[in-house]
Amino acid sequence: MGSRGGRRSSRSSSGTHRYPRSARVGETLREIIAEELVRIGDERLEFVTVTRIDVDDELNRAHVYYDSLSGPEADEEIIEALGEHRVRIQSSIGRQIRAKKTPILQFAPDDVIRAAERIDEILRADGRSDEAGVGE
Q1: Contact 89/36 with Cβ under 8 angstroms?
Q2: C-beta separation of 119 from 111 below 8 A
Q3: What does the DSSP 8-state code read for residue 97?
Q4: Is 51 helix (H, G, I), strand (E, B) or coil?
Q5: Which of 6, 46, 49, 72 has the smallest number of Cβ neighbours within 10 A?
Q6: What does pTM read for this prediction?
Q7: Mean pLDDT of 69-84
Q8: At what angle do helices 75-84 and 86-96 cross, to 10 degrees?
Q9: Phi, psi at residue 129, to the nearest 5°?
Q10: Contacts with 93 (C-beta within 8 Å, 6 or more apart), sequence order
Q11: In this structure, are residues 113 and 51 in contact, taking their beta carbons and an 8 Å threshold?
Q12: Counting Cβ atoms within 10 Å, is residue 97 exposed (0-12), middle (13-18) or buried (19+)?
């Protein structure tokens, strides 16, 4: 029974390392992808910032989230450009990281950033309407 307890703690401690590893890989991927977007020089990607990357535990897939100064109106064009350059970006990742495989990249706008921007706009507008009502 004593050895089983040791095994369990060993398993749970290895389980706790999965998230930090995928987080580290995600941060490394974010840096590599950001550098590669600059090298690509596609004007559709000029104002795109990679905000975060979620990598699954097996490192099979990476969800790459971006934001753009061009706003949501440019999303279709940005997704198209990222798709066109996906192979080049994945090749760059493969050359720069030491892993058995390179995760498949999936691109999407960062809705968390956009929601925060919307909240900020609402708060600013509410602040302006409060100021306008003070003088009445």
Answers
A1: yes
A2: no
A3: S
A4: strand
A5: 6
A6: 0.73
A7: 94
A8: 60
A9: -70, -35
A10: 29, 32, 33, 102, 103
A11: yes
A12: middle
